[in-house]
Amino acid sequence: MSEEKKKKKFYKRKSFYAIVVVALLVASIVYGQVKKANTPISYETTKVVMGNLSQTVDATGNVASAGELDLRFEKSGNMAKIYKNVNDKVKAGDIIAELDVRSENAQVAGASASVQQAQANLNKVLSGATDDYVLSIKSTYDKAKASLDQIKSTSADTVANAEAVLRTAENNLKLSEGGEDSQIVGNAYQDLFVTIQSVQNSLSNALTDSDNILGIDNTLANDSFEDVLSALDSSKLYTAEIKYSLAKSAKDSLDNVASSLNLNSSHESLDSAAEVAESGLVSVKDLLFAMSQMLDATVPIGNLSQADLTTKKSTISADRTDISTKYSTIITKIQAVETSKNSYVTYQIAYNKAKANLENAKTKALADVASAEATVTQAEAQYNDVKNPARTEDVSAARAQLYGAQASLSQAVAMRNKGRIVAPLDGTIGKIDGKVGEFVTANATVVKLVNPNFFEIQVDIPETDIIKISVGDDADITLDAYGDDHHFVGKVSEIEIGETVIQDVVYYKVTVSMEDNSEDEFNILNGMTANVVFYTESKENVLYIPQRTIRTDEENKKYVLILKNNKAENVYVSTGLRGDNGLVEITSGLEEGQEIIVREIE
């Protein structure tokens, strides 16, 4: 044969078929991955359910006959009441004896009141606010707005007044700048100049009125009554004439000094003229006083009538008043000049104070307005809130408050019941060991209950569940001998406080008393296997989901995945009661009927 014939055709070789198989496998895998990448993700989902949720503890034990049942208190205390006597027949649930539980009764009453209050609050949230309440909140809102407007107005007025005071202080400060040459000092000297001129007129009038009576310069003025002047005391006339001469001299001195004065005169000349004017006023004041005394010594005789004498006295009195006023005025003006010279420091202090007061007024105004605006915002939010229907979160919070109050009531009742011995089943009192007022220790046998048809079951409960069970709790019992269709009623009669360790797990022995079955059709025998279910807690009308759907993030916060627009989205939730069958209560975060993701379907 030739070489070509010796060689097999390639498609008849084993290696060819191996290559073909590998290629087909690779193509299949690639096709599968491409198909998977283009196929939408599918999820297994479940819905949020609204219903009743129960939490139970189950255990298995054996039926044992107990003709006598020892009953004990779960706490120590003083015996307060014994309700039954030996040989009395009792029914299940009857209270046989009781310790002093007044404080526990008070706690039960308080917890019961809290439940009623929480229920009323939930009803109020569900029903919404009343019209009267809405109107009262609206009134509060309106008052807050009116108060804001008033505070704004008052604050604006306060700031405006402070600004006006500051402007006045600033103007005074500017006027006082320059010391002796300041505008305010110049104004004070101008006032002093005007006062000096006024003093001149008053001195002149007073001298004229006096001369019209004395007739010294105007010798003809008193010819008709000259002889009767000071008729009662001639010395008074002499004194008046001397004072007139002195006053005239003082007035002439002022006229000489003032004749060269004007508004632009030097401050020194004005100061000097003011001193002369002050001296002239003193002299004229003395003159007028002497004139009054002289007229008092004059009597109406001859040509001097009483009316004329009274007129002259009135004229002199008016002059005295005018001179006294001018004297006070010129003293005031002289002091004003001195004050104006020292006013810069005073006005500087006043300006600084006015400036600080303005800043304080602005700051206070801003704070007052901000506070009032916050009050308006709060009142508006409250008003808007009461107008709207009850929010889901408010209802959930009110329900949670009610559940919490109910749990507190259950706990208070359980604590109170530790001080009571309650018949767990029907029977006869065989013995009572204790007296009223006697101190009884916990777990000491106090009552023996006799029942020939009485059975009990002892079960071991792990430490994780023992805290959920209390003496007096009801239990549901099924016997393997009669199947799951036949249920028997039991009640927890005893919980041992001593632990039992079984395979490194801590258990506590719980005794469940079965109700009297003497009339039952079932023949219960010792040793029968019993399945016991304790209903530890239940809630009605709550939201729940499977426990396995709840996840936790890095901050240990709980969330679930919901399907939104064909995409998984996180929703954070709060949980409550963990029920049977892997269910858990949702207290916030979800609504009834929402679909949540259980897992992703490959």
UniProtKB/TrEMBL annotation:
Subcellular location per the Swiss-Prot or TrEMBL entry: Cell envelope
In this protein, which residues make up the domain named Multidrug resistance protein MdtA-like barrel-sandwich hybrid? Answer: 76-446
Record's keyword terms, sorted: Coiled coil
UniProt superkingdom: Bacteria
Query: Where does it primarily localize?
Result: other
**Any Pfam family matching the protein:** BSH_RND
Multidrug resistance protein MdtA-like C-terminal permuted SH3 domain span: 541-601
GO molecular-function annotation terms?
transmembrane transporter activity
Coiled-coil intervals in this record? 344-382
- GO cellular component, as recorded: cell envelope; membrane
State the PANTHER family in the record.
BLL5650 PROTEIN (PTHR32347:SF23), EFFLUX SYSTEM COMPONENT YKNX-RELATED (PTHR32347)
Its family remark reads: Belongs to the membrane fusion protein (MFP) (TC 8.A.1) family.
| Designated name of the protein | Membrane fusion protein biotin-lipoyl like domain-containing protein
